[in-house]
Structure formats: structure tokens, C-alpha cells
Amino acid sequence: TGDADATYPFERIHTYIQMLLDENLDFITTDRFAELGHGSMSVKHYFGNTILSLALRFLFFIKIRDSQSGMWIFKKNILKKIQPLEIFNDGMPFSEEIKIEMFTAKNVKSKEIPSALYTREGKVKLESFKDGWKNLKFLFKKRIS
């Protein structure tokens, strides 16, 4: 999966799929912080992403650096091994929730890999504070549920 705003390195998808197969992985998520393109993420968004990723690591003991990345590669059959998609959050927290499910499921082999983030084409639709706050609240609610 990935956003169609030209920010993700889809030219690398074959390499990522090969890694999924070679390492017998079920789920791969990408770490955009590994290669941030000039102007690809504002300081405000960088700070917010860092806070959300720290919260996810602290609350769920998942060692990933980029909880907000929308570029993932996964085997279709693993969807049967996690909670039903119908009960996933259908808003901004979905990206966090899929990672929480994949990295905490005992029968799913997951990995975060370094990737890139390019400068966006088009207007940013993210409402920084509102969406960030919604994601942070979601993490705490999911932790206590």
C-alpha cells in the first residue's frame, strides 16, 4: 500500500517484495526517516511523527521508527491472522493500528526497513494538530482496551 502523492519510492517495490520473499516475512513497513528528501516533511510533521512513534514504541514495545508510514508490503493470507479489518479504525490511526496488529501477532513475521520520502506532489490534506492528537489518543485507548 502507499499514498498516490509521489512521496513513496514505488520504484523500489520489486526489491521490497523480494526481501519479503527471501526473508520469509509476512509484513514489511517502511521507515521514511531513513532517507528524507529535501522539503519532504515539515519540521512540525517531523516532530509530530517522532512523538507518535515514541508513544507507539513505549506503549506497545514495538521497535519501529516510523509509526506513520503508509507504505507497507504484506502477504494477503496474514489478514486472517489478525483482528478482522471491519473493526480497525477507519481514519488516520489505521496506519498505527495495522502495525500494532502485525508486530504483536505471534504468528506474523514483521519487519521495518529503511526507505525514502520524496517531496509531495499536490496539496497536503493532513490537519497536523487535529490528526496528530487523534492518533495519540487512539494509541492510549488501544493500550488500555
Which features characterize this protein?
mainly alpha; globular; 39% helix; 145 residues; single chain; 4 helices; three-stranded mixed β-sheet
Give a written overview of the molecule.
Helix content is 39%, strand content 9%. With 145 residues, the chain is mainly alpha-helical. The protein is globular.
Unreliable stretches covering 5 or more consecutive residues: none
Structural class: mainly alpha
The total of beta strands comes to: 3
Distance between the first and last residues' Cα? 27 Å
Give the total of domains: 1
Quick summary:
The protein has 145 residues and is mainly α. It contains four helices and three strands, in the order αβαβαβα. A three-stranded mixed sheet has the order 2-1-3, with helices on both faces.
Layout of secondary structure:
Elements: H1 13-22, E1 27-31, H2 43-60, E2 72-74, H3 94-104, E3 110-114, H4 128-144
Parallel strand pairs: 1-3
Antiparallel strand pairs: 1-2
